[in-house]
Design a protein that fits this description.
The chain is built from nine helices and five strands, in the order E-E-E-H-H-E-H-E-H-H-H-H-H-H. The chain has about 200 residues and is of the alpha/beta class. The chain has a five-stranded mixed β-sheet with strand order 3-2-1-4-5. Helix 3 links the parallel strand 4 and strand 5.
């Protein structure tokens, strides 16, 4: 039950329908890569331990589309980086390289968006574990910076719970009343004509 960093590796940038390649796990005692075929059959790791990751929404939604639930993610490096005003992108390599970790950019491994090619399993595993190691290695430092900047309440009480809410909204969608939207559109058009 050791806290671990996890990183979900996918092929493609749209995590709603991208192919899940597997998950890297890194902690003070071990590191490994779980191919998705195995993860899907034995998802125990996803519920038994506290985890850190980069981009909870991607991880939660991508797994949910496969019928897999994940919980106990207690730290999101992407959200922490955002609050600390780092230049955050979907690709973890941007933050990693700013923090002096040599992690290849997504395009370097998989190719350009829309033309991605799945590399050898060994390359996938190696790079996913590098990402999980980065998440694990930087968690304490980012957490200390959050505390130093008095962002603890914002991060732990608002942003972290909000990531789960946004994940559920992305997965479930939101109810839209077509009639209300049409009325709003008509009113906006009417307002535009009046003020023109």
């Amino acid at each position: 039950n050791i806290e671990s960093a996890i990183y979900l590796e996918i092929l493609g940038t749209n995590y709603h329908n991208a192919q899940i390649l597997g998950m890297a796990v890194y902690n003070k005692e071990e590191s490994y890569f779980i191919p998705f075929e195995i993860l899907k059959k034995q998802p125990d790791i996803l519920t038994k331990i506290n985890k850190f990751t980069y981009d909870i929404k991607k991880t939660w939604v991508a797994l949910k589309w496969q019928g897999i639930n994940i919980d106990n993610i207690v730290f999101d490096t992407m959200v922490a980086g955002y609050l600390l005003e780092y230049n955050i992108k979907d690709d973890i390599a941007y933050l990693a390289n700013v923090l002096n970790y040599d992690i290849p950019f997504y395009e370097t491994i998989y190719g350009k968006k829309g033309k991605e090619i799945k590399p050898d399993d060994e390359i996938i595993a190696k790079n996913a574990v590098l990402k999980a190691k980065f998440i694990y290695d930087t968690k304490q430092d980012l957490d200390s910076k959050i505390e130093k900047e008095n962002l603890n309440k914002l991060f732990y009480d608002i942003e972290m719970p909000l990531t789960y809410t946004l994940s559920e909204m992305e997965y479930n969608g939101v109810y839209v009343d077509k009639k209300v939207l049409e009325d709003m559109g008509f009113n906006l058009l009417l307002s535009k004509n009046i003020f023109s």
